[in-house]
Structure formats: C-alpha cells, structure tokens
Design a protein that fits this description.
Helix content: 10-25%
Shape: elongated
Order of helices and strands: HHEEEEEEEEHEE
CATH architecture of one domain: Beta Barrel
Oligomer: single chain
Number of strands: 10
Length: about 180
C-alpha cells in the first residue's frame, strides 16, 4: 500500500467519526435564554411565543399611512389606537380596547357606544370586517370607514407600540399608546 493510501485509511475513520454528532432534539425549540434571541424578541424582530395583539401594525400607501398600536391594559385586555388615511384632509382616528374572542380579537371602540368589531390576524396582518355596525359611523368623517381595513404587522414589541407616532384631530403628533 502506498503512503498516500495509508494516510487516507487513517484519516477517513476520523472524518466519518466527526460527522456523527448526537441527534438533535427535533423539537425545534428555541433557546429563550440565548442573548441574541432575547434581544430580537425585545425589539420585536421575531414573533413571541404568545399570540397577543401587542405591537405595531402599519402600512404606507398613495393616500397616506394607516397605523395601529396595541399595548397591554390589564389581564386579557389591550388598549389600542389607530389611524387610517384616505387622502388629504380625510382620515379616521379611533381608540379603544381589544379582548380575545375565540381565535379572533374583539375591538371595542371608545366614544361610540355599541361599536365593536371582530378582527382577525392572518399571516401577520390584522383584518377588519368588510362592514361595521351603524354605531361605528361616527368614527370617520364623510364617506370614509374602517370597514375592510387591513394592517400588516410591523412589530410585536410593546416598546415600539409606545413609541408609535400618529397625528391627532388637530394635526399634532402624539404617541397614543405611550401612557
């Protein structure tokens, strides 16, 4: 046997042995104590394990920007604020509370008695129903409505939600989820 072949026969078992690493757990579990994982969750970069509406939903379009923030407001309840733009001088602004309703969320709008909507989050996008009760008519001016509004999720972070800026009815920049 030539020296090259002998070397190969000596090294080959070592190479094969190094490939035999213990079987992975297969559970796909994430190491929640990993500092990188913790930082990503804190910043809202990765989805947390629990399904809550906490965070920011936002999209920009030709007519302006639609946005919503949601923050915890007691056990099983969240507080939200949202704005939807329909062009220069025409927008809706609303706030209220959110509670779990089966696999969906029930939004109760403040200042509009009986105005509630069951919304769904599908593939990280919040979807309002195609029609809202008549009690919700005063949420928006003119012919504008929140019906059918969809908002992609931008973050799962409570801190991002608290920092989200919106314009109030007077045009002032506010952070409605900050307090």
């Amino acid at each position: 046997m030539t020296p090259d072949r002998r070397f190969l026969w000596l090294v080959l078992p070592l190479l094969l042995a190094s490939c035999d690493r213990g079987a992975q757990s297969g559970s796909g579990a994430v190491d929640a104590d990993n500092p990188l994982e913790m930082a990503a969750r804190e910043r809202g970069v990765v989805r947390p394990d629990t399904a809550t509406p906490t965070g920011v939903f936002e999209r920009a379009h030709d007519l302006g920007r639609d946005a919503m923030c949601a923050v915890p407001d007691g056990a099983g309840q969240w507080r939200f604020a949202l704005t939807a733009s329909y062009g220069p001088g025409l927008s809706c602004a609303a706030s209220g509370t959110i509670v779990r309703d089966g696999d969906s969320w029930r939004m109760r709008f403040a200042g509009a008695e009986g105005c509630e909507a069951v919304v769904h989050e599908e593939e990280d996008e919040l979807r309002m129903p195609g029609s809202l009760p008549s009690q919700c008519d005063n949420l928006c001016p003119a012919r504008a409505s929140l019906s059918g509004l969809f908002l992609p999720r931008a973050s799962w972070s409570e801190e991002d939600a608290k920092r989200l800026q919106m314009r109030d009815s007077r045009g002032n920049v506010v952070r409605p989820c900050a307090t």
